[in-house]
Structures are given as C-alpha cells and as structure tokens.
Amino acid sequence: QVRLHHSVPICCLPGCTFCSFAHMVCSRVGDGPLICTFLVPPVSYDYSWNMFRCIGDYLHLFGVIVVLGTLYKNKSCRGISRGTHILFLGVFASRYLDLFYYRQSQYLVVFKLTYMITACLVLAVFWKLDHTYERKKDTCSLMVLLMPCVAAALLLAQDYTIIEVMWSFSQFLEGVAMVPQYIFCYRDRGAKDFGVMLYVMSLGGYRVFYAANWIYKKVQMPQYSDMQSWTGGVIEISFFCDYLLSVFTGTSVLRAMVLKVDEKINELQDRVELRVLGSSRPSRPQVEGGVGELRKRRAVPTEEPAVDMDV
Fold it and tell me: In a 3-state reduction of DSSP, which class is residue 137?
C-alpha cells in the first residue's frame, strides 16, 4: 500500500518506468503504509507512453492474432515452433505476477491478460493438432536457453524479491524466446507460408519499436536506466536482424553458428539418452546443402556405420 503527498497515483512495480525515475523520498512509520514524497514533477510517466511503445504493443498483439489465424486457416502447426510459444508463456507468467499484487491501468491489464490467454490458446492448438507438429525441425533445446536466463536474473536483479527476480528473468527470456522459431525457419527454408512469415516478422519486429522507445526515454530522461530490458532487447534484435538478412539476401552471420550449436547440443543429448535409455531421438533435418535432407544418426550400434553430414 502506498500513500502519496499529492493526488498522482503510483504503482511501485519493479521496473516500472514511472516509479523508478520519478524523484521521490519514501519512508514507513512502524507497520503503516509506505509514504512517498515527490521532489520533482513525475514527468517520466508521459515519456513512457510514447508513440514507439504503442506501436510495439500493437505490433506484438498483431503477431499473436496472425499466428492464431494461421493455425486456424491451415488447420496445421506446420512452420511454427512450439518451443517459442512455451518460452513466451514463461515470459508472460513470470512478468505478469504483478497482476495479483498491484492495481494497474485498464490498458495494461487487458494486454497482459490477452498475452497470457493467447499463449495458452496457441499451446492448446499444438496439443490438438499434435499430428501436424514438425518435431524434426523444432530442435532447439529450451533448457539451454532457460538456464542462462535464470543465472542472469539471479545475478543482475536489482532487488531479491520474487517479483523483481521473476521480472528480470522474463526480460532475459524474452530476448531468446524467438530463437527456436528462427532455428525452425533456418531448417525449413523451402516453406513459403505468408502467414508464418508475417507472424515471425511481427513478433520479431515489435522489439525494434521497444528499442526506439528506450532511446526516446533516455534522450528525454538522462537518468533512465533499465539494463535487464536493454540486454534482452539487444539479444532479440540481433537475432531478428540476422533472420531478416537470411530471408532477403540469403546470407546470414549467425545462421550457421546457431545451427551448428544446436546440432552439437542435440548430439550431446542423444549421447546421454543413448547411454541412459538405450535409444536416441529421431533424426533431424539438415539444412546446409539442400532442403529437407535428414541428418542420419543411428539409435543403437549397427554393423554398418551411419552417415553423418556436417552442417
């Protein structure tokens, strides 16, 4: 509970641009409410709600609508990574815990609930249309992406409260949430579904407008700092720009590296499964050198050696 010395409301959420950058002094008497006094007019709220943020919000929402529409139109999950939507659900579930603790504007509540509900809907469609899911192309290991995000959140969180740590985790996780989809697209270069491409462009591109929003706020408020969001944003935009380069020019700086790392991780997992369970997972598609080729691996030792094609 927060009581202000004037009529302007405040939420005091971790990472809230309004609360973090308004100059104020806070104090608490006994078990009473936290009392905050502004030293300067809280102008940062106006800068937080700028054109770039609004475009980013609605482009993100548009991408969500496109992926649901594409799933409905095709009656198939082909071309879409389930791993990406599992990560996005993790982003929303960890970031929007504040809905249970703080009063917020209707705009924020509607968008947050929409993202949560649609993420669950997408995964429900994957469960319903499981027979159309292309597992051999959705090869990215989610655990390899999750563990560094957990470590970064624990090391770089500003305060060690549940909400603050989870919020920091969500920012780092969002930075890599589209990586499974990019790997899927790199392995599925022959696909020409316009809906899938539009969805990838929208969910990859909305962060570019968020970056413009951060730059705008930094120019208007030199004291503005949000390293968690900036770090996740730089990572996400880097992968997105490389994806655009791959789509429109056929060349890529990160594509070969990403696929090579993905292959090595999956090979390691296969070895572990082979040793522990006695069998490995099905072979996965090989991208370099043609579309639809399969990387052939043996599940158990045989007399004839398996053919191993390098990426």
Answer: coil
pLDDT at 42 over 60: no
- Dihedrals φ, ψ of 105, to 5°? -65, 155
What pLDDT does residue 260 have? Answer: 75
Per DSSP bridges, beta strands 34-38 and 2-4 are: parallel
Supply the DSSP string of 243-267, one letter for each residue.
HHHHHHHS--SSHHHHHHHHHHHHH
pLDDT in the model for residue 47: 62
Query: What are the C-alpha distances in Å from 251 to residues 79, 120, 186, 269?
Result: 21, 35, 11, 29
Mean per-residue pLDDT for 5-17?
Answer: 42
State the amino acid at position 293 in one-letter form. E
Sort strands 284-286 and 24-28 into parallel, antiparallel or unpaired.
unpaired
The backbone region for 15, taken as left when phi is positive above 0, alpha when psi lies in -120 to 50, beta otherwise, is left
pLDDT number for residue 43: 43
* Closest alpha carbon to 107 in 57, 164, 46: 57
Chain center to CA of 33 = 36
Mean pLDDT of 165-174: 93
Q: How far apart are the first and last CA of the chain?
A: 57
pTM: 0.72
Q: What is the distance of C-alpha 224 from the center of its chain?
A: 23
Is residue 174 classed exposed, middle or buried when 0-12, 13-18 and 19+ CB atoms within 10 A define those classes?
Answer: buried
Q: Which amino acid is at 177?
A: A
Give tens-digit pLDDT for 170-201.
999 999 999 999 989 888 877 778 999 999 99
CA dihedral 60, 107, 174, 163 (to 10 degrees): -170
Locate all alpha helices (DSSP H) within the chain, ordered by sequence.
17-21, 44-48, 51-74, 82-95, 106-128, 142-156, 162-176, 179-187, 194-220, 227-249, 255-276
Predicted local distance difference test score (pLDDT) of residue 309: 36
Q: Using the structure block, give the residue that is written with the tokens 């960890």.
A: 94
